[in-house]
């Protein structure tokens, strides 16, 4: 879908044009697409309508989406934070690889970082953050057996962010940046041995049929900001803004609940467990994180992932970390007590 003309509509858009999350995954198919294409019309008594397209089919590279929002080329859009390493590395702090090994840790990090994220997007970029979405836990799918993280040494592992690359590189693996839609083809071609992706996302792709082992430590999660160009937001009728301010937090909460369900369902379905209800059953071997894996996660985050993020981001990010996530999680930057 061409996007170039969207920013020119300063008045009320009928329909609103929205760029949503990844095509084909539950966040989009069960929640975002129905909300914008049907629920908004129902909730507004027919006054407002919207059209939505997933960002990976919108014709805008993921690392350009936030700039397109800033410029108003895309008035309402979804940005994966992991794509911002090169342009806005400060925003990637919230979901660095190895930081959040469970949902409780993730929620703690988000609570500490969200006020800064909202303020910075608004003041620095003119982008109004309207929701913060999350995908299921990003875990390891491997073609060959593994008993723990140490067995990744020498393997080629699909990654989707610089932080994930830092994490697997510290284990002696070779990180291979691969688009979500290309994961299966790369696995089948033998160009990767393992892939980091969501538990249920991997099932949707069909990884359960071509990989044998699933290591369930969440390496990251996949957070995405849904935001609006400030001028486009301000141009909406006050009652529409009020409606979206009321309903988008509910949509966000539903997506977070879906992420938790999908994380568990992905494990159940990929392994063929009886609890599988929403995916396709595989026969994968589930490998839970051992105490050694947990110690290694902590070491890699402290000694590799966090220092390299600080190198990319600079002193401002050290200060930001020590004012937000660091105290909340008990993780000071190197050189700070």
Describe this structure in words.
The protein is an alpha/beta fold and 337 residues long. 44% of the residues lie in helices and 18% in strands. The protein contains 11 helices and 11 strands. The chain has a 6-stranded mixed beta sheet with strand order 7-6-8-5-9-11, with helices on both faces. Helix 4 links the parallel strand 6 and strand 7 (174-177). The longest helix is centred in the C-terminal third of the chain and has 34 residues, at 238-271. It is globular and about 55 Å long. Mean pLDDT is 92; it is low at 1-13.
Gap between N and C termini: 50 Å
- Name the quaternary structure: single chain
Helix content: 40-55%
List low-pLDDT spans: 1-13
Outline, from the CA principal axes? globular
Structural class assignment: alpha/beta
How many helical elements?
11
**Series of secondary-structure elements, N-terminal to C-terminal:** EHEHEHEEEHEHEHEEHHEHHH
User: Which sequence of strands runs across the widest sheet?
Assistant: 7-6-8-5-9-11
Radius of gyration over all CA atoms, rounded: 20 Å
Biggest sheet descriptor? 6 strands, mixed
Strand-residue fraction? 15-25%
Total strand count, please?
Answer: 11
Summarize the structure.
The chain has helices at residues 26-43, 65-71, 103-125, 162-170, 183-189, 199-205, 230-234, 238-271, 291-313, 315-323, 325-329; strands at 16-20, 50-54, 76-80, 127-134, 138-142, 156-159, 174-177, 194-198, 213-220, 223-229, 285-287.
Topology:
Layout lengths: L15 E5 L5 H18 L6 E5 L10 H7 L4 E5 L22 H23 L1 E8 L3 E5 L13 E4 L2 H9 L3 E4 L5 H7 L4 E5 H7 L7 E8 L2 E7 H5 L3 H34 L13 E3 L3 H23 L1 H9 L1 H5 L8
Parallel strand pairs: 1-2, 6-7, 6-8, 9-11
Antiparallel strand pairs: 3-10, 4-10, 5-8, 5-9
Helix pairs in contact: 1-8, 4-9, 6-8
């Amino acid at each position: 879908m061409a996007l170039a003309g969207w920013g020119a509509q300063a008045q009320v858009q009928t329909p609103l044009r929205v760029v949503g999350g990844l095509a084909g995954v539950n966040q989009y198919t069960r929640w975002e697409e129905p909300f914008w294409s049907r629920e908004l019309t129902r909730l507004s008594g027919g006054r407002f309508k919207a059209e939505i397209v997933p960002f990976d089919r919108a014709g805008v590279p993921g690392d350009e989406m936030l700039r397109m929002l800033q410029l108003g080329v895309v008035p309402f859009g979804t940005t994966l934070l992991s794509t911002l390493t090169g342009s806005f590395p400060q925003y990637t702090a919230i979901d660095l690889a190895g930081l959040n090994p469970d949902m409780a840790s993730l929620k703690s990090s988000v609570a500490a970082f969200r006020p800064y994220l909202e303020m910075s997007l608004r003041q620095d970029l003119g982008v109004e953050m309207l929701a913060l979405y999350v995908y299921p836990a990003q875990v390891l799918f491997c073609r060959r057996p593994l008993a723990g993280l140490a067995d990744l040494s020498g393997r080629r592992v699909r990654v989707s962010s610089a932080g994930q690359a830092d994490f697997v590189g510290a284990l002696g693996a070779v990180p291979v940046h691969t688009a979500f839609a290309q994961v299966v083809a790369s696995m089948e071609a033998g160009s990767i041995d393992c892939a980091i992706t969501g538990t249920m996302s991997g099932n949707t792709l069909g990884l359960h049929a071509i990989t044998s082992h699933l290591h369930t430590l969440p390496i990251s999660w996949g957070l995405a900001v849904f935001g609006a160009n400030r001028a486009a937001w301000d141009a909406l009728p006050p009652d529409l803004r009020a409606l979206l301010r009321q309903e988008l937090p509910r949509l966000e909460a539903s997506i977070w609940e879906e992420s938790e369900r999908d994380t568990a369902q992905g494990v159940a379905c990929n392994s063929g467990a009886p609890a599988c209800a929403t995916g396709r059953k595989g026969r994968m071997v589930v490998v839970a994180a051992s105490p050694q894996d947990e110690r290694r996660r902590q070491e890699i985050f402290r000694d590799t992932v966090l220092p390299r993020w600080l190198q990319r981001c600079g002193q401002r990010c050290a200060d930001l970390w020590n004012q937000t996530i660091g105290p909340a999680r008990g993780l000071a930057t190197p050189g700070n007590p």
